[in-house]
Amino acid sequence: MFRYEWLNISILQGWGSFLYHYGATLEVNGMVGYLCPERLSSYLHDARAMQKYVADALKIHENKRYVMGAFFENNHWMLVVFCLEDYYACILDSLQAEKKEMKIIEELKLSWILNCVQCGKRHLTRKNELECKIIKCPQQPRSYECGYYVMKWMYDITVNYSKRKDSLENCVSGSNMTAQDMDQARELCSKFCKDNLQCG
């Protein structure tokens, strides 16, 4: 189930919930917020609803350091991370060698503007302009591993990076994931599903 197929969206939805509760045990919940991957990916058929959802979520999590969520575009899972302290968003894409236009970038910028208006920041020029960066990150060697990369990044940002003082780019720009890293991601996913998901 976890070795040769793309991850189902329900697993990624649950993964964010799991990390939220797991983060509470590590006292990092005040640092990280999570976005629903289904609603984040809805810009493909309902951009306005997606913009409002993200704007509302950013307002709720305005005191967090990072707000992140998986999104699906071009048959590929990626991760967006809002770095709220520095007014920019990072996109982690494990297939950067495949040149592609990301439709989500414009929607993220519009979501940010809407959030600024809702928060009464319309006159603060720098805070109204969201810079979206596609940052250097580990690259997948095969076509079916994108979901595991996203899960591993979410885990590392929550557990290992949320309290570090250096930038997110410095944290995730290391070498590609090893077989051991991928095994860890699969084990985390398998344990999470076994402990939290029931098959009907």
UniProtKB/TrEMBL annotation:
One record GO biological process: proteolysis
Keyword annotations: Hydrolase, Protease
MF annotations from Gene Ontology: cysteine-type peptidase activity
Occurrences of domain Ubiquitin-like protease family profile (ranges): 1-157
Xref: Pfam families: Peptidase_C48
PROSITE patterns named in the record: ULP_PROTEASE (PS50600)
Keyword Hydrolase among UniProt keywords: yes
Highest rank taxon of the organism: Eukaryota
Similarity annotation: Belongs to the peptidase C48 family.
Name of this protein: Ubiquitin-like protease family profile domain-containing protein
Taxonomic source organism: Saponaria officinalis (Common soapwort)
